[in-house]
Write a structure and sequence with these properties.
The protein is an alpha/beta fold and 101 residues long. The protein has helices spanning 7-16, 20-30, 54-62, 73-76, 92-100, and strands spanning 4-5, 34-35, 67-70, 83-84, 87-91. Helix content is 43%, strand content 15%. β4 (83-84) and β5 (87-91) form a beta hairpin.
Length: 101
C-alpha cells in the first residue's frame, strides 16, 4: 500500500492549519507520501464539485488510487462509498475502521 496525495491537497491542508507545530507535523508526515497531480482538466461525467475540490479527485484518479480519504462531508459527502473512475470516496475515520476489522 502506498500513501498518495497531491501538492495541491498538501498546500490546502497547510493553509488550514493554525499552529506552527501542526505545520511541522504535516511536513514530517508528508515525507513518506508519493505526490501526484491532476492531469485531466474536467471532472468525470455526473460528478459535481467546487472548482477548488476538483484537483483533489482528479489527482486521485491520475494516481490510480483505490481510495480517496477526506473529511470534507460538505463537498464529497454525496460520493461517500461510491467509486469514481476506480477511486472509492470515504471518510478517513471510516477507512481506518475498515482496515482494522
Amino acid at each position: 500500500m502506498t500513501l498518495c496525495s497531491s501538492r495541491y491537497a498538501l498546500e490546502e491542508a497547510r493553509i488550514n492549519l493554525t499552529e506552527e507545530h501542526q505545520r511541522r507535523r504535516l511536513r514530517k508526515l508528508s515525507e513518506n507520501v508519493e505526490l501526484f497531480e491532476a492531469v485531466a482538466l474536467e471532472l468525470p461525467r455526473g460528478i459535481y464539485l467546487p472548482e477548488k475540490d476538483a484537483p483533489i479527485i482528479l489527482a486521485a484518479i491520475a494516481a490510480r488510487c483505490s481510495h480517496l480519504l477526506t473529511g470534507d462531508v460538505r463537498h464529497f459527502g454525496r460520493y461517500f462509498g461510491k467509486k469514481i473512475e476506480g477511486v472509492t470516496i470515504v471518510l478517513s475515520a471510516q477507512y481506518l475502521r475498515n482496515r482494522q476489522a
